[in-house]
Amino acid sequence: MSNQIELRHLRYFKAVAEELHFRKAAEKLFISQPGLSRQIKQLEENLGATILERDKKEVRLTPAGEYLKTEIDLMLNHLNFSFQQVKHVAEGASGEIRIGFLGSAMQNVVPDLLLKMNEKFPNIKSSLEEMSNYDQVQAILKDEMDLGFVRLARVPENIGLKAVFTDSFSVVLPGDHPLDTANFTSIAQLAEEKFILFTADYSNLYFNTIMSICEDQGFSPTVSHKTVHAQTIFKLVENNMGVSIVPTSLQEGYNLNIKFIELKDIPQKAILSMIWKKDNRNPVLKSVMGLV
């Protein structure tokens, strides 16, 4: 059976599974709709399973089709990456590692890693992409990413998780705010303020931790704005739209009229962790992880 199924069959099915529409999938693949239908029927015959249910109104994946789509995504992602690795090796490089990260990881952890890579393994290429926690986990599960830097307490069983950097939190205030390091005593002094925070979708652990910092002082913060970018938070604070709490390391690299007060006497910490897929076959991953 395996000799009868070719790579084109898998690519054709992937297109139909994504579009759930034969005409749109055929246009995407630059083939005729009848030709695509024949290829899918041939694939089903070779598999001995129905993977698509179709009628005049819609196309649906069967349970077998859902499973096949997931497996094909993994196979094609790995195959495309393998082809890219072959190209790097042919050009004299050792390979490539794909790294995802939260913005705060770019303050210290990721730059330090890149410097060490350049020193120890100059022939390893790297690609970087800023992504949310959720997107990093999904990309690693699909073999679209090799290494991620997240703020998560739990990950799926087949993903490794290791804390690599522990940071304190700091309050962010407009430059002309009456509170400063001399008269600040606790976060309770900001109970009536509006808060600007990273969205829970970007980092649910961070969002819940900020909630707990405030709740420990007897209040639930009024959240007026949410965003995924530190720059946006700081600009809103600068313009007196509210205050915020962020990992202390995020204060580096911004020239804005805002001030930071570190929360030194609270138990909550901002923990940045490294994640990777346990069965990742990228030969350079282990070497890079050893540098973190």
UniProtKB/TrEMBL annotation:
Annotated GO CC locations = protein-DNA complex
Q: Which UniProt keywords apply?
A: DNA-binding, Transcription, Transcription regulation
GO MF assignments: DNA binding; DNA-binding transcription factor activity
Q: Which domain of life is it from?
A: Bacteria
**Keyword presence, DNA-binding:** yes
- Pfam annotation, one family: LysR_substrate
Q: Which SUPFAM superfamilies match?
A: Periplasmic binding protein-like II (SSF53850), Winged helix' DNA-binding domain (SSF46785)
Where's the HTH lysR-type domain?
A: 5-62
Query: Record's family?
Result: Belongs to the LysR transcriptional regulatory family.
Protein name, UniProt field: LysR family transcriptional regulator
The organism is Persicobacter diffluens
